[in-house]
Design brief:
Elements lengths: L1 E6 L1 H12 L4 E7 L15 H7 L4 E3 L5 H10 L3 E5 L7 H4 L6 E5 L7 E2 L2 H8 L3 E8 L9 E8 L6 H9 L2 H14 L14 E2 L15 H10 L7 E5 L2 E15 L5 E6 L2 E4 L9 E11 L2 E4 H4 L4 E4 L2
Parallel strand pairs: 1-2, 1-4, 2-3, 4-5, 6-9
Antiparallel strand pairs: 5-7, 7-8, 10-11, 10-16, 11-14, 12-13, 12-16, 13-14, 14-15
Helix pairs in contact: 1-2, 1-7, 5-8
Length: about 300
């Protein structure tokens, strides 16, 4: 089959590589120009570079404009494959090929539609995540499902661990989807919209620690925001503090949320949700970063005090 690829960053590059490794012909690669945007600069392996290395025509654009649509029409694809494309695509484009457009999304749809689904899945306490190949329609991640691959979320997994493992699902899922289309045996499964959950784009505010959360939630939050993503942060004595490593306390503690009270097992104990009842476990912070310098958590918070929003 003749395929046009739309993609960006490492997700788009791995998808293009899977297409190149298939028995099909990639006739055009559409990608965004390189960006220094905070999230677009993460996992930023180049789609353009890979396409040019394989002699595939490349079109650089921020959006699917009239020029883009015209180029795709002239490429005469039988299917379009999309992964990590940041802007809206009109029906004129995604309905153009005989097999339509396949979109890859890093979650088990209809759960975690929207943005940064892997990070949100870990933060929310989900026990599994994965990859969905679905047909693009006029909604956001709402089209019929063709292929899904699942992977568990372990108790020590970081957001980066899950993103990288999820990327390894791309080749198998792409090849399975293309084989189904080519054979005429594609089985499309409509999404149950009643089960849909949507998550918004992440911003700096979304990395700020909320000390009213339960310690289990806070520990997951710290693990989810692992390098190269913006780290979980709070403020202490007027300084912004990034929390790099933490665990749930063994003992139960009480007091006021956000208070550094004692040390436990080499870390500083900070109280969280319903601390006034004294029955919950707390977060034990073991490693922090301030102004680019890493510190031991117990030593850094040795003076006690409060962790605050500002």
């Amino acid at each position: 089959m003749r395929i046009v690829s739309f993609g960006f960053q490492t997700w788009g590059r791995k998808t293009l590589q899977a297409l190149i490794d298939s028995d099909h012909e990639v006739v055009l690669a559409v990608t965004h120009p390189a960006s220094d945007h905070s999230y677009k600069g993460i996992f930023s392996d180049s789609v353009e570079e890979l396409a040019r290395a394989h002699g595939i025509p490349v079109h650089l654009t921020e959006r699917a404009d009239e020029q883009t649509i015209d180029l795709v029409k002239r490429a005469e694809p039988e299917v379009i494959v999309v992964n990590s494309w940041y802007t809206w695509m009109p029906a004129e484009l995604y309905d153009l090929p005989p097999h339509g457009t396949l979109n890859l999304h890093d979650s088990l749809l209809p759960k975690f539609t929207g943005f940064s689904p892997v990070l949100w899945a870990l933060i929310s306490g989900a026990t599994e995540t994965g990859l969905t190949v679905h047909r693009m329609d006029d909604g956001l991640d709402t089209g019929d499902i063709l292929v899904q691959r699942t992977m568990p979320i372990g108790p020590a997994d970081t957001g980066t661990d899950l993103v990288e493992r999820g990327m390894e699902l791309i080749p198998g899922a792409v090849h399975e989807a293309l084989a189904a289309l080519e054979s005429g045996n594609a089985r499309w499964r409509p999404q149950n919209k009643a089960e849909r959950t949507y998550f918004h784009k992440r911003s700096e505010r979304d990395s700020r620690i909320d000390w009213t959360w339960d310690a289990v939630d806070l520990e997951r939050f710290v693990r989810a925001l692992s390098a190269p993503y913006p780290r979980a942060f709070t403020h202490y004595r007027g300084e912004r503090v990034e929390v790099l490593a933490a665990r749930v306390s063994e003992a139960h503690y009480g007091g006021t949320p956000g208070r550094v009270i004692v040390q436990e097992g080499g870390g500083a104990v900070v109280t969280g949700a319903q601390a006034h009842r004294g029955g919950n476990r707390a977060l034990v912070i073991t490693r922090v970063r301030v102004a680019g310098v890493d510190h031991d958590g117990a030593e850094f918070f040795s003076r006690g005090g409060y962790l605050t929003d500002q």
